[in-house]
Amino acid sequence: MEVLKTINLTKTYGTGNARVEALKDANISIKQGEFVAVVGPSGSGKSTMLHLLGGLDRPTSGSVIIDGKDIYSLSEKERSIFRRRKVGFVFQFYNLIPVLSAEENITLPLLLDNKEIDKAYIEDLIGLLGLKGRKEHLPNELSGGQQQRVSIGRALAYKPSIVFADEPTGNLDSKNGREVMELMRLSVQKYHQTLVVITHDLDIASQADRIIRIEDGMIVRDEAVRA
């Protein structure tokens, strides 16, 4: 089943001689359960694509369809609600609330939406992420790898249709980076979700089902890594 589709997705900045085409006519389709890596050199348009796919920025033209909904046909308020309920984000910087415990940071999206917390699911998620003994700790009492695990839990708390991760291991050493990626992969597999990772790390990209390569704002390769 198709979870995400883009139609001629384009983003430009500036005008005249200062005009920059950050993304040009991108057409992609991602199925439920896929792990897709987006790679390319610095400045190629990877992060621009992620921000557009996740509804964090508006395209100059084109469409992004998630779960059959054209997200840019929604108002700002509607898109914010849709994003909170259907899309999870993991970034290089953890963006945790310092006065909240690990468990409270994970359940924050649900609390913001006055959503009843599925305690069994959250406990299962915390266990999968190896945080059972750390769920009452504040962020400054956690290691970098543990903080990133909390941010993964927060991204998965609402059981989103798709999770976007922008260089999720960029702030971690190689050992923690490998562990975090393995946890992300296992989490989305267990909960039947879809994962799109922006990365410059070819080792991470090689773990994906598909690799999309972007150069100068254009998709130059989109191919399966494994069956």
The helix/strand series, from N terminus to C terminus, equals: EEEEHEEHEHHHEHEHEE
Instruction: Summarize the biggest pleated sheet.
Output: 6 strands, mixed
The CATH topology: Rossmann fold
Number of domains: 1
Number of helices: 7
Beta percentage is 25-35%
Question: What does the overall shape look like?
Answer: globular
Which residues sit in consecutive blocks of at least 5 with pLDDT less than 50?
none
N-to-C span: 16 Å
The order of strands across the largest sheet is 7-8-9-4-10-11
Description of the molecule:
This protein has one domain (2-224): P-loop containing nucleotide triphosphate hydrolases (Rossmann fold), CATH 3.40.50.300. Helix content is 33%, strand content 28%. The protein contains 7 helices and 11 strands. The chain has helices at residues 46-53, 76-86, 102-112, 119-128, 144-156, 174-190, 202-205, and strands at residues 2-13, 20-26, 29-31, 35-39, 61-66, 69-70, 87-91, 162-166, 194-198, 210-215, 218-224. It has a 6-stranded mixed sheet, with helices on both faces. A hairpin with a 2-residue loop joins strand 5 and strand 6 (69-70). Helix 3 packs parallel to helix 5 and helix 5 (144-156) packs parallel to helix 6 (174-190). The longest helix has 17 residues, at 174-190.
